[in-house]
Amino acid sequence: PCPTPGEADDPKTIRRRIAEVARVLDDFGALSHPASPRAAYLARLVEDVGAYYGYNAFLAGAIFALLPPAEALALIEAQEARRPTTLRANTLKSRRRDVAAALIARGVALDPVGPWSKVGLVVYEAPVPLGATPEYLAGHYMLQGAASLLPVMALGAQPGETVVDLAAAPGGKASHIGAMMKNRGVLWVNEASAGRLRSVSANLSRLGVTCGVVCNYDGRDLPRVLGERCADRALLDAPCSGTGVVAKDPGVKGSKSQADIWRCAHLQKALLLAAIDLVDAGSPSGGVVVYSTCSIMVEENENVVNYALRKRHVRVVDAGLGFGRPGLVRWREHRFHPSLAHARRFYPHTHNLDGFFVAK
Q: What is the pTM of this model?
């Protein structure tokens, strides 16, 4: 039968039971006990994951609803380890090979982040503080999670365009966009939180982004402030629950509720419509909106984009990233537009990146 907890279960016992229950759930027909329904095994697994890893019942249940049991456990385990330190070479001031050579000379062990990026580097060992080297202070690179490179790559900004970053702090993606634009054109760098503007401005200045105009508006108001159809491209890296970056913020494990997720989704839907309204669909070079989150929750990802597909005359296209899992078109009782398969999901346990979602 489905195992029940003992009065004095130690962590080793709980860990062993988690593995056993997950094994049964992955081959339920062959391994389960006739007297124990699947729901009982799943409830046992969710409770044990909460006790062992510190997840509340809501988030643990959501992860097991998203992925098969063994894979859900792999994701949870991967979230216990911090992602590797990564940085982005700033092509406005340097080249990746020059940044790498300078840091190697300081004893830093690093490699290109992967074949998918021309500017990313992953750091294995650093005897010097990477945020205080002369190269960092001179703006030759930005400390930035590898997953954060993906939305900007999907956006594909070109020199001479008008581009809007609706939620820019701390400025990593905006400065990457500026580098791709080669400082030619106009980059609106918006951040709703006045307290975070200083870090945005400081990073843009250090990295030599001169095409950026920093502004402080609620992103939902930008079509009124800047004008509808004023831009060639727009990036919305939306405020989210952070369920893909538990490794950075373990407090997420026990603090998020379904109400928190729906509150995020409500704001995300309004911001995405604003991003769409900012972009000129007839732009000869653009007409592109990219939506991204550092969340693994379907409510904040496919469901938000599906809402925009119903409200605006837009379509999801291939983001051109070359890897990542397809977005979901079926989840629980939900059915999403088939084009959402063009969106991309990234997971810590499969890609060694933060949990991330990108739709173009």
A: 0.95
